[in-house]
Write a structure and sequence with these properties.
alpha/beta; 4-stranded parallel sheet; single chain; 12 helices; Rossmann fold
Length: 334
């Protein structure tokens, strides 16, 4: 019998590991995905959202009726809105206008005040993160019940969520028999927190970065410079600036992944293994396959299945959208 929990917040975490059959057979390794799409808010970002809000409460930054502000590609905003609803807060979310309609619709459904911004780089004052920062400063004095600017990018509560929950869960689920962990960087919380947690238990575990085109993280960890080429349709991952959470990440191996590689993995997983996943999961699994091939047969590699593919149905599972981008589409959709 499944144990009961008291509220939304308590339901976050303790997600299963799923063996990825074809990836494992291809490499001769055991490749597992941490099923973070099974969190109550539908993504791995529920963990960071929970930890950020609990820390805000602990530090007396917010009380019931208070406002939480965040700039997000979607999933952190959804997690924050749902945790906030369960604990009596309001949310104001800024998001680039080019993010999937499904995520924006979910934020509105949650009751968040949604502000869409131009898809411009961080250097532009109209960038979604810069907009959130500005609004947090402007509104702070008028919020009598407190204002929490969650700032997932530089907030140590983000990697702490994975240091104290995701990492130990993976260690326990593999019974310590894990050789490598690999994932992409969005805010750096997952790779930083999980990597630190696992390497505290076994320093020999290798940490891999799966980086989409257009991101500067691969060059940062390989050369110490922020350089990028190309672009990617994948949302919520890839980073062009050095944020605090990235500075603390430990990365041994870097794998550059194209959108085509990631999409083919996703389509195959859906058709052959029944897993409908978002774009970042495709990047992660493609990275895990490459890392397993480098390690050789007989090793165990774990990655993260970040969210469900239905949040991107109008993009990465839309033949019309993919055709315009010059990318492959699911063959069964025409």
């Amino acid at each position: 019998m499944t144990s009961s929990v008291q509220n939304f917040t308590d339901a976050v975490g303790n997600t299963p590991l799923i063996r990825l059959r074809k990836a494992s057979e291809l490499t001769g390794c055991e490749i597992y995905g941490k099923a973070e799409f099974l969190n109550p808010g539908g993504s791995i970002k529920d963990r960071a959202a929970k930890q950020i809000i609990l820390e805000g409460e602990k530090n007396n930054e917010i009380e019931k009726g208070g406002l939480i502000i965040e700039g997000t590609g979607g999933n952190t905003g959804i997690g924050l809105a749902l945790v906030a609803n369960s604990r009596g807060y309001r949310t104001l979310i800024t998001i680039p206008i080019n993010q999937s309609d499904e995520k924006k619709d979910m934020l509105r459904l949650c009751g968040a005040h949604l502000i869409e911004t131009p898809p411009v780089p961080y250097s532009d004052p109209e960038n979604y993160v810069r907009t959130a920062e500005r609004l947090a400063k402007e509104l702070k004095s008028s919020e009598e019940h407190g204002l929490l600017y969650s700032n997932q990018w530089d907030n140590p509560a983000n990697p702490a969520a994975h240091l104290h929950t995701t990492g130990p869960e993976i260690w326990g689920q593999t019974k310590g028999k894990i050789d490598a962990f690999v994932c992409a960087i969005g805010t750096g919380g997952t790779i930083g927190g999980v990597g630190t947690s696992l390497r505290e238990r076994n320093p020999a575990i290798r940490i891999g970065l799966a980086d989409p085109e257009g991101s500067a993280m691969a060059s940062y960890f390989e050369e110490g410079q922020l350089k990028s080429t190309g672009s990617s349709i994948m949302e919520g991952i890839g980073q062009g600036r050095l944020i605090d959470n990235v500075k603390s990440a430990q990365v041994n191996d870097v794998y550059r992944i194209s959108d085509t590689e990631a999409l083919l993995v996703l389509f195959d997983l859906l058709k052959e293994e029944g897993l409908c996943l978002g774009g970042s999961s495709g990047i992660n699994i493609a990275g895990a396959i490459k890392m397993a091939q480098d390690l050789g047969p007989g090793h165990t590699v774990v990655t993260v299945l970040c969210d469900h593919g239905q949040r991107y149905q109008s993009k990465i599972y839309s033949p019309t959208f993919l055709y315009k981008e010059g990318l492959p589409s699911p063959p069964w959709l025409g």
